Amino acid sequence: MGVFTAPENLSGHEQVVFCQDKHSGLRAIIAVYSTALGPALGGTRFYPYATEEEALHDALDLSRGMAYKNAVAGLDLGGGKAVIWGDPGTDKSEELLRAYGRFVESLGGRYITACDVGTYVEDMDVVAKETNFVTGRSEDHGGAGDSSVLTAFGVYQGMRAAAQHKWGDASLAGRTVGVAGIGKVGKHLIGHLLEEGARVVATDVSERAHDWLKANHASVDFLDTTEALITSDIDVYAPCALGGALNDETVPVLNASIVCGAANNQLAHPGVEKDLASRGILYAPDYVVNAGGVIQVADEIDGFSFDRAKRRASKIFDVTGEILRLADAEGVPPAVAADRLAERRMANVGRLRTILLP
């Protein structure tokens, strides 16, 4: 796959930068999808991709998703994403992260980075030694800290909005929610759900995640596989791990009325959203409901206030409801309605940049 010959759903990027520092072992790709609304904000994923093509595909796909996420969240920021090709457990070093920071700095502010899978606030503190264009830093350095806190809170608000739309009641008390992925976000989400009185079942490939669940929430049932979870008697399915959770194998056997989770790019390919709709499953678009994290790190750019960021993240309830109503009104799946809303804002607000200022 070439950058200029990517499939239609991955095309339209403004800039893709390949970064290499042989001495530190850095191999990274920075993808800027759009700066129509402002600098492209998106995290850095550190992951052991099987091939360079797979890494490029992820960078292109994730950066597009960030542009749409930031637009729908009402942020004056464009969308970008970076991937570092390697194993974060063995390849990550101060030298590599600082080399990466130099490449981010070289873009002059077109791209602002933050945490993602395989990177943490401590890593962003290291990257920040070489660039000013980084957010999601530790609290010791004036940052927002762990962005998974408001990511989970936003997913919880989106889930409540989906419940309101589906059942006429935003309460999740008494509902059964299946959480796939007990990572940084999944842990916080489970806490919100249990506090409201929902029944939770969960799964994760990590034995450590299972141990954490037993130690902290013994009332949560643990299932060995995602297949067991999605075919069990659940009301809501919350994918909170990697993308592609909704595909040609999972959707036909999914036993839930609502899908609302934190994972990015949950739809494995175009058309899955129609399959969900045909089965009567309400899909809360992933980049809408998981925007709490980017709202949190974006707030840091102007001087972080957790209370202010949380108030902004709480509006995910309203935005999700608006998109679900728009989908009904226009006779399209919610994923299509969300895309339309994002594209309208990028076009209408981005157009204002053509008005020259003195």
TrEMBL record:
GO terms for molecular function: nucleotide binding; oxidoreductase activity, acting on the CH-NH2 group of donors, NAD or NADP as acceptor. The keyword GTP-binding does not apply. The keyword Oxidoreductase applies. CDD domains: NAD_bind_Leu_Phe_Val_DH. The active site is at K81 (proton donor/acceptor). Residues 145-354 form the Glutamate/phenylalanine/leucine/valine/L-tryptophan dehydrogenase C-terminal domain. Transmembrane segments: none annotated. NAD(+) binds at G181, I182, G183, K184, V185, G186. Keywords: NAD, Nucleotide-binding, Oxidoreductase. One of its GO terms (biological process) is amino acid metabolic process. It comes from the Bacteria. Belongs to the Glu/Leu/Phe/Val dehydrogenases family. This is Valine dehydrogenase.
